[in-house]
């Protein structure tokens, strides 16, 4: 079955509230560019999990942005390189460093911008850029007198709620808003877990008659598993709320929770309705969760 996929870059507006403050991301111009150095980082593979099995992909196949950062052992950032797909050096970064011990962090993602990486214990994506599949490398390395090259293998740190609407968007509905709590918009690179309590809001423009629409909601969990409180709200073109539905969603790091159903089949005058769901677990992909609402 084909889904009409709404990409984060085109239709998504993400707003974070809760404990997070407004941030300014590290721009593409804020980066260290060194052609020669004594430490070279090369991404050799990115954990990529298309259905139905776990595979390994090159960086260019899994993402369109890479970030390399070097910190001292106290967590102060010393070096930063941001790369976009199409850059000549995409996937490789070189740094000149004095002898010593350093923390290396590398990220792969497809956001519309770069996260703020000032503090490795709180790497924070800009609220307006959206959230995508995110992969991480974190390690302490010792730099000596001899040059060295590290081959990096990145692993996924996100959890994904994939919300599928089987029925057609009815007349009068112009926007769907997904609000969910329980995850995080920032993460600690040393653990790969979320480090703040966030309220994430994603808004999608829709058109009447659209069927089999799909909405991907990414988050960083605070541990290997957690739960989200998800609320779906429909609005008309003037911003008037037509109805909303709520449910709890079980989530696991590096796993997908699928929510499928007919969202508009039981629109009533009462604005708030709760979901009841059944779950089926497929362990082939580290435990996909299938819900029907």
Automatic annotation (TrEMBL):
GO cellular component entries: cell outer membrane
UniProt-annotated location(s): Cell outer membrane
Pfam families given in the database record: Mfa2 (PF08842)
Keywords assigned by UniProt, alphabetized: Cell outer membrane, Lipoprotein, Membrane, Palmitate, Signal
Family: Belongs to the bacteroidetes fimbrillin superfamily. FimB/Mfa2 family.
Protein name: Fimbrillin-A associated anchor protein Mfa1 and Mfa2
Organism per entry: Prevotella communis
